[in-house]
């Protein structure tokens, strides 16, 4: 797996086609105690499939952005009980994916 981290200035700049899984990290999901969606996304994927993860800016993803993303079949998922910085959240997701696909089997 060779991950790519890309910057998008606007939600509409995100390419959504060609991915097997689509996830947006959503602070409100984490605040509500949601912890299983990210694990389920990984569990439902097979080796060789692709995923896109959207990490919002400091302050989180807006309700309008969540609505736009879920309209494109994104799953909103919490990344645990802590608030992560925009700079570190992608590495958290990559570490979780690496653990799931490479170390837990």
From TrEMBL:
Signal peptide start and end residues: none
Q: What class of enzyme is it?
A: transferase
The entry sums up its family as follows:
Belongs to the RNA methyltransferase RsmE family.
Q: Which InterPro entries match?
A: Alpha/beta_knot_MTases, RsmE, RsmE_MTase_dom, tRNA_m1G_MTases_N
The EC number(s) given in the record are: 2.1.1.193
Q: What is the protein's known function?
A: Specifically methylates the N3 position of the uracil ring of uridine 1498 (m3U1498) in 16S rRNA. Acts on the fully assembled 30S ribosomal subunit.
Write out the GO biological process terms.
rRNA base methylation
Q: What is this protein called?
A: Ribosomal RNA small subunit methyltransferase E
One example of the protein's molecular function in GO is: rRNA (uridine-N3-)-methyltransferase activity
Any one GO cellular component localisation term in the record = cytoplasm
Q: Is-annotated flag, keyword Methyltransferase? A: yes
Keyword Transferase present in the record's keywords: the answer is yes
Localisation per UniProt entry: Cytoplasm
Q: Which organism is it from?
A: Lentilactobacillus kosonis
Q: Pinpoint the Ribosomal RNA small subunit methyltransferase E methyltransferase domain residues.
A: 2-97
User: Which NCBIfam families does this chain map to?
Assistant: RsmE family RNA methyltransferase
Q: Which reaction does it catalyse?
A: uridine(1498) in 16S rRNA + S-adenosyl-L-methionine = N(3)-methyluridine(1498) in 16S rRNA + S-adenosyl-L-homocysteine + H(+)
The record's keywords, sorted A to Z, are: Cytoplasm, Methyltransferase, rRNA processing, S-adenosyl-L-methionine, Transferase
């Amino acid at each position: 797996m060779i991950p790519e981290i890309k910057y998008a200035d606007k939600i509409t700049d995100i390419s959504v086609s060609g991915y097997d899984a689509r996830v947006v990290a959503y602070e409100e999901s984490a605040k509500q105690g949601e912890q299983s969606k990210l694990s389920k996304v990984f569990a439902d994927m097979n080796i060789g499939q692709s995923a896109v993860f959207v990490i919002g800016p400091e302050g989180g993803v807006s309700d309008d952005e969540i609505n736009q993303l879920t309209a494109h079949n994104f799953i909103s998922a919490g990344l645990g009980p802590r608030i992560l910085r925009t700079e570190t959240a992608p590495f958290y997701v990559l570490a979780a994916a690496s653990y799931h696909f490479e170390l837990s089997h």
